[in-house]
Amino acid sequence: AAALGEWHCEKRPFAKSESFANNNENVPETGCLSIIVLGASGDLAKKKTFPALFNLYRQGFLQLNDVHIVGYARTKISDDDLRDRIRGYLPNGDNGTEDVENFLLLIKYVSGSYDAPEGFQALDKAISEHEFSKNSTEGSSRRLFYLALPPSVYPPVCRMIKSYCMNKSDLGGWTRVVVEKPFGKDLESAEELSSQIGELFEEPQIYRIDHYLGKELVQNLLVLRFANRLFLPLWNRDNIANVQIVFREDFGTEGRGGYFDQYGIIRDIIQNHLLQVLCLVAMEKPVSLKPEHIRDEKVKVLQSVLPIKDEEVVLGQYEGYKDDPTVPDNSNTPTFATAILHIHNERWEGVPFILKAGKALNSRKAEIRVQFKDVPGDIFRCQKQGRNEFVIRLQPSEAMYMKLTVKQPGLEMSTAQSELDLSYTQRYQGVAIPEAYERLILDTIKGDQQHFVRRDELKAAWEIFTPLLHRIDNGEFKSLQYKPGSRGPAEADQLLEKVGYVQT
Ligand code: NDP
Ligand code: BG6
């Protein structure tokens, strides 16, 4: 594996960059690393957090001598019970390999409530005991708290951590808190949550995770845009007709209906995952690769987004969604949405950014489609079959391809659509693409906040969607029914056509 903070490009190593490396790389980090997973009994913890920690451990990023992991939740279970719950979610977990068993031995479990001192005092004791067993001097420990919990308990949990579980002095080491989405339900609630957490922790201690920022091809966007001369002059309103950022899932909200119905697809996917991708596609070149410079540019894009117009939104709900007993019979919650965003700046004026997300559709896919304008004075117009389109497929099967018009091979002089194709499985055979959570947890340990959402960024993101969300919540905007396994409501395709998207 590449050493911490180093980038390699095929056989040619990249130089270490300011941001891709550890922020504190000149200060060697010492002391134990304690990773505390709060909500350890839950779904996210077993499916994502622990497997990501295991993969980091396997690759040597979590040193056996320094690290320990503590699960915390209300459920009364033993260390072994927690290990048994996790085992099946680890690669080859059920085969009891040495790696798996050694990793599981790093995990301890403490049970307690989320708002009473006793549990957190016991948690602090468990962490401290480990630190002392490793001869760590007080104050040099590193404590990472991962809140795999419903956001309703973030404030009391943060208060308890602050009161009872902090790294004991500021001589070295640190305490960091990782929080999951959803960060609030609208601008007001998000700001309230931010203030409550902000009173307890400084911004550099807070890691608001959006796992889309950990995906390989999302991380590639900066490099693609700013390290390739080819794209620099093309990436603007003069050449680009529209940009689509699409998320599709071919399954519904099974098992999560209760959660989903309170949030809907805009809060679940668009306001966070797709908007983060939009920022990276649309932002100006940052001054440097320092996390703050990158995040400054993302905030500017968000602040330049114009209010969303009702006629540029289509909402849908798949038939059968309300059969879930945890979903109310009269629910209007959208499971599908298409919304057009307009960025009011010199680069993007007049270019529609189409954000589309849906559950229970015909395929599972997440992609960015940058569609170029028609060729001016086109001499092939009687034969031409489509526009240039640059597609970045985030998942599945990561790929980038450019749709081009070429001469149809042969004696005839005719044109055809073809692709310049960079499919990762073919080009990078044998290279394992890390899981998003794996990368992001590693960043939290390194102290690199580049791929995390800053407070002002979150505020600007909620500002864009809150008026629309309130209209939906008030029943002013109806979700159209669509068949599971379809493309979603036909009205969404009509909207795309209206704003100039041409099927290629
Ligand atoms: P769970 O519903 O599984 O909750 C996690 C744990 O929190 C539970 O095991 C339970 O532990 C405790 N808990 C549950 N409900 C409450 C409550 N009302 N009050 C106090 N404690 C409660 O959640 P997930 O693991 O699915 O998600 C955790 C966080 O991650 C959420 O913010 C979610 O939105 C986010 N997330 C989840 C994803 C997923 O795939 N699951 C994906 C992306 C984000 P105990 O009762 O033992 O204390
Ligand atoms: C989560 C959403 O944030 O992302 C889920 O809450 C969704 O509804 C999931 O299924 C999709 O993540 P991925 O990485 O599978 O695209």
UniProtKB/TrEMBL annotation:
The subcellular location is:
Cytoplasm
Keywords recorded for this protein, A-Z: Carbohydrate metabolism, Cytoplasm, Glucose metabolism, NADP, Oxidoreductase
Query: What coarse category fits the chief subcellular location reported for this protein?
Result: cytoplasm
List, in alphabetical order, the GO biological process terms annotated in this UniProt record: glucose metabolic process; pentose-phosphate shunt, oxidative branch
What enzyme category does the UniProt record give? oxidoreductase
Q: Which residues form the Glucose-6-phosphate dehydrogenase C-terminal domain?
A: 222-500
Q: Which Pfam families match?
A: G6PD_C (PF02781), G6PD_N (PF00479)
Q: Which GO terms describe its molecular function?
A: glucose-6-phosphate dehydrogenase activity
Record's catalysed reaction(s): D-glucose 6-phosphate + NADP(+) = 6-phospho-D-glucono-1,5-lactone + NADPH + H(+)
UniProt GO cellular component terms? cytoplasm
The source's superkingdom equals: Eukaryota
Q: Which residues form the Glucose-6-phosphate dehydrogenase NAD-binding domain?
A: 36-220
Describe which pathway this protein belongs to, using the record's wording. Carbohydrate degradation; pentose phosphate pathway; D-ribulose 5-phosphate from D-glucose 6-phosphate (oxidative stage): step 1/3
Write down the EC number. 1.1.1.49
- Give the family, as the similarity comment puts it: Belongs to the glucose-6-phosphate dehydrogenase family.
Role noted for this protein: Catalyzes the rate-limiting step of the oxidative pentose-phosphate pathway, which represents a route for the dissimilation of carbohydrates besides glycolysis.
What the entry lists under NCBIfam families is as follows: zwf (TIGR00871)
Sorted alphabetically, which HAMAP family does this protein's record hold?
A: G6PD
What is the name of the protein in this document?
Glucose-6-phosphate 1-dehydrogenase
Name the species this protein comes from.
Salvia divinorum (Maria pastora)
Q: Which gene encodes it?
A: G6PDH
